[in-house]
Amino acid sequence: MNPDSLLALYERIADAPDAVARLRRFILDLAVRGKLVPQDPADEPATELMTRITEEKTRLVKAGRIRRLQVDPVIPEEEPFITPSAWIWTRLGSVGDWGSGSTPPRGNPDFYGGDITWLKSGELNDNRQLSGSEETLTEYAVRNGAFRLNQPGDVLIAMYGATIGKLAILAEQAVTNQAVCGCTPLRGVSNQFLFLYLLSQRAQFRSASEGGAQPNISKVKIVWTPFPLPPLAEQHRIVAKVDELMALCDRLEAARAQRESTRDRLAAASLARLNAPDQATFIEHARFALDTLPALTIRSDQIKQLRQTILNLAVRGKLVAQNPDDEPADKLLERITGARSSLTDIRGIRRVKALPPITDAETKFELPDGWAWTRLGNLSQFVTSGSRDWAQYHSNEGAIFVRMGNLSKDHYHLRLDHVQRVKPPADGEGTRTRLEAGDILISITGDVGMLGLIPEGFGEAYINQHTAMVRPMPEMQGRYLPELFRSPFAQDQFNEPQRGIKNSFRLTDVTQFVVPLPPLPEQHRIVAKVDELMALCDRLEASLATTDSTRRRLLDALLHEALAPTEIADSIEPAKALAS
């Protein structure tokens, strides 16, 4: 496999979400299976190499230069894959001298601040020329502690916690703490090839780790790990080819980053034109954006930005055209105010009192003709929250108890996969918050601004004290207010008044919520246009998911064919045909 062949196969799937990472793992898989470079019959077989390694190990043990470590031979049932005929399976403990370090007592200043590099697991980052450390030890500490003095060229592997499997090759003499195991490969074993094999086994090491809060992989498990030993000359060829292909991965990664950056800039420029529109060119810009964004969109976060832009345009009066024949919003407000004054009091729920006028600082943009600024309390029959005594009424059946977990930040459709139920007494205080169709729910503690809209036919339901219930006036019981509440303009208001250690939003904050109010017919047109454009976003997301799935299948086919037990040249053709 050469870089040109890899590029030819990879071009079609380069934008798969994890393509480059999987390609790197794929290269390592090929390397350690003997499928990355051709075998040379002139190479000394690994059986003869292993004989010399064993002889050297015996000599070093007798000379007291390394410790004796006895591991059993690998039996066929333990071999995870088939290797070329010139290779041999052995164990990691048979091809090197392994040992870990320790941490000297912190209370003794004679141990720290010397000239000896002391490495901890967090300092290993797959560096093949590691030198220097955050802390150093004195020679006195090393002489009097349980340390293995690692030499330049030794391979280190982390054994604890989130760093399990992290690697390094030393460029200097160093010691480690107890979370790092070091290996001096015996003559005939390339430290670079050992590094690549350990890297290819990282997932297996992590899955084999044990422990609770800080899992670890023991030195015993490491040294008993089966190791496929190639002829020495082939080890060097493999390392050279891996380096070549990893450099190619670097270029693929850089090229992908450049493509995404370009797409991001183009998409951001298009959305920026929509969010700060010029009236004379807005229609042209909107048409251009909607035509080009599908081609520029390759990530779900970009679709989320498009959804937010649509809502931003909707509440600013930029999404649909104004109709001069519509009844102006100030007339709608007059009618709502008259209707509100005739409402009778509801037991336990205070009517919204006169609200303060809206200041210039609260109006973030200029409204179209026919619109008006107002506050949410002026559009509501009442605003309230649930009571605190619901725990005693929890039941396996009964009314739905809507909690914050049933609300959503991205939309106003209730999430009902996990529902708590309650059976309140008929005259209980909590019954004042019995929900009705059209009620809007807003979380007012913790993650403020999560939403819910009660649909028709929802049945008996209640809320707790963490949720505000807004019951709009009949004229406002459409979907304009719910769409407004999930817009960036609304979310900015939810975020502004949060105060205290625990984020909170008072009921007065809810009633004083600033609303850009369109004429009633325009509200209906806005909602219809939002539905139309959100459906477009849904199709974009579905298309993106389909494209990602196709790329993943092509990538899977490529990897499967390349790892099949046949010659590499034969395995590439089916994947190439699938990708064409």
From TrEMBL:
Coiled-coil regions listed in the entry: 245-272
PANTHER family per UniProt: TYPE I RESTRICTION ENZYME ECOKI SPECIFICITY SUBUNIT, TYPE-1 RESTRICTION ENZYME ECOKI SPECIFICITY PROTEIN
Work out whether the entry's keyword set contains Coiled coil: yes
Question: Which GO terms of type biological process are on file?
Answer: DNA restriction-modification system
Q: Nucleus as a keyword?
A: no
Return the Pfam families for the record: Methylase_S
Protein family according to the UniProt entry? Belongs to the type-I restriction system S methylase family.
State the UniProt keywords alphabetically: Coiled coil, DNA-binding, Restriction system
| Start and end residues of each Type I restriction modification DNA specificity domain | 85-256, 368-542
Q: What is this protein called?
A: Type I restriction-modification system, specificity subunit S
Any one GO molecular function term: DNA binding
